Amino acid sequence: MTELAEDRQARHNQRKGVNLGLVARSSFTDALLVAISYLTGPLFCGFYGLLVTLWMPILCLAFLVDTYTQRTGSAKSGKTRGNLSIEQGGSRTAIVVLSMRATAAGLGYGVDHIAPQLMAQLPFAGIGIPGTIYLSQIYQLLTRAHFRLTSMTLNDFLAKVLGLPVGECFMHSRTCFMDDTLMSFVHDMQQQKKPAANVVVLGAGYDTRLYRLPCFAKYEKADSTAASTSSATGGATTADADDVGTHMRLYEVDASGTQFEKRRVLLNAGIRTDHVTYVTVDFAAESWLHALEQGGFDASLPTCFIWEGITYYLTEDVLLENLAIFQEFSTDSVIGFDYFGPWCRGARIMQAMQAAGEPWHFHIRHDQHLQQLLCATYHFAIKDHVDHARCIDRYVPCHLDGRPLGHLGAFGGFVAMSPQR
Ligand SMILES: C[S@@+](CC[C@H](N)C(=O)[O-])C[C@H]1O[C@@H](n2cnc3c(N)ncnc32)[C@H](O)[C@@H]1O
């Protein structure tokens, strides 16, 4: 077995044996909660779900006050309110995603060990309101307690009740899939002895891969003066110095509001960032490739694009433009992305996302739609495709009897693909 396969297997075992690990590693209180939940099962699920759900109006109220404050501010300054991601405070959904990863990590099965550090500094409802950070922290505590009592996180519980396929299990699986895609790419580049390659995280939000994956650990240890150059766009620095193996050039691309906020929390958490080039771009108004090139990006190198949690925010036209850009990269490049399936057509969540200022547009209508876009129109080779069933098998943690721990419906899929000539 190769080192990469062994590493994957170890992570798989860790994910699958999570329930045993949780009980074994938990405190006395946790063990007691788990024991109570086994005895009282459905009763607690309903009761505790109700209790935690009562907390939701407080969060929603904070969110509404924040939205109102921002609207009033925009009206006073004469600006119309646009995409939250380019405003001060940045994307709220990026914080919600981070919060879900922080919960999974706090419970012992999540792979993003940096998420709790960042989440401790961010409120996901009411960015502009003093004290709302505590609402998020109480929410984290409640959702963890909910899991101890019911073996289901609050998000999974709510998703199940509301008939939605996506909750914490989905987010955890998506993180694992993108980690696997990126680590395989780095491994392949090193096996092929490529002198240099790029990693680009598009719409990075609070993605922590470039700071936590073992394949980038050497950058953390590198001398901070080594190979650091100024980025044309964000005034940031890049480090592509690597004495052994492939030189990995690391980029994060995001809207100004989110990126500013992320860099602030990384700095406060004492996490080193000078090995990453930060590129600021508004996807709706500018070319991300042009912005990257201004930041020193070499498009002739093999590139791994992580396009996580993004496609649903694009219109089909913009999605097609992006596919055409990816198609121009070398055939050893890889694009990892996720998509939603037919379930979101007409779903209430579409209206909710619109009202929240981060509307969803695109979804895959049926299997042929995906094939047509990726293979017939643009000739990508699909290297990995994980649908709902494969996802449960590969990434979703289980009870000791094999039942999935949490809730995951037919969300759509995760894809890793390469351009073909
Ligand atoms: C749901 S978040 C996903 C974040 C991250 N990929 C993850 O999975 O944790 C969507 C991201 O897209 C970014 N975004 C939204 N609209 C954008 C725009 N017009 N230009 C650039 N970035 C945008 C937001 O700032 C945010 O980071």
Task: Report the C-alpha radius of gyration, rounded.
Answer: 21 Å
Question: Strand order across the biggest sheet?
Answer: 5-4-1-6-7-9-8
Biggest pleated-sheet summary: 7 strands, mixed
Number of strands: 9
CATH class of the largest domain: Alpha Beta
Shape: globular
Overall domain count: 2
Oligomeric form of this entry? single chain
Q: Residue-averaged pLDDT, rounded?
A: 79
Bound molecules: S-adenosylmethionine
Strand content: 5-15%
The termini sit apart by 31 Å
List the helices and strands and how they pair.
Layout: H1 3-16, H2 18-25, H3 28-53, H4 56-76, H5 92-107, H6 115-119, H7 132-150, H8 154-162, H9 168-191, E1 196-202, H10 209-212, H11 217-221, E2 228-230, E3 237-239, E4 247-254, H12 256-268, E5 276-280, H13 288-294, E6 303-307, H14 316-327, E7 334-340, H15 348-355, H16 367-377, E8 380-386, H17 388-394, E9 412-419
Helix pairs in contact: 3-7, 5-7, 5-9
The structure holds S-adenosylmethionine.
The site of S-adenosylmethionine has 23 residues, from helix 5.
Summarize the structure.
The protein has 421 residues and is α/β, with parallel strands linked by helices.
Can you offer a commentary on this structure?
This protein is of the alpha/beta class. It folds into two domains: 3-162, no CATH class; 195-223 and 230-419, Rossmann fold (3-Layer(aba) Sandwich). 50% of the residues lie in helices and 13% in strands. The protein contains 17 helices and nine strands. The strands form two sheets. The protein has a seven-stranded mixed sheet with strand order 5-4-1-6-7-9-8, sandwiched between helices. A two-stranded antiparallel ribbon has the order 2-3. Helix 5 (92-107) crosses helix 7 and helix 5 crosses helix 9. S-adenosylmethionine is lined by residues 83, 85, 90-91, 93-94, 97, 203-207, 254-255, 258, 281-284, 308-310, 313.
